Amino acid sequence: MKYCDLHTHTTASDGSDSPAEVIRLAVTSGLKAIAVTDHDTVAGIPEALEASAKLGIELLPGAELSVQIAHGTLHILAYLVDPGSPELNGVLKEVQSARAKRNHFILERLNELGRTISWSELEEMSKGGQIGRPHIARAMVNRGYVRSTHEAFAGYLKKGAPAYIPKSILSPERAITTIHKAGGLAVLAHPISLEFETPAHLDKLVAEWADQGLDGIECYYSMHSQELTRLSLSLCKKYDLVPTGGSDYHGKAKPKIKVGIGKGGLRVPYSCVEALMERWNKGGR
Ligand code: AMP
Ligand code: ZN
Ligand code: FE
Ligand code: FE
Question: How far is the CA of 261 from the centre of ligand 2 (A)?
Answer without folding.
Answer: 17
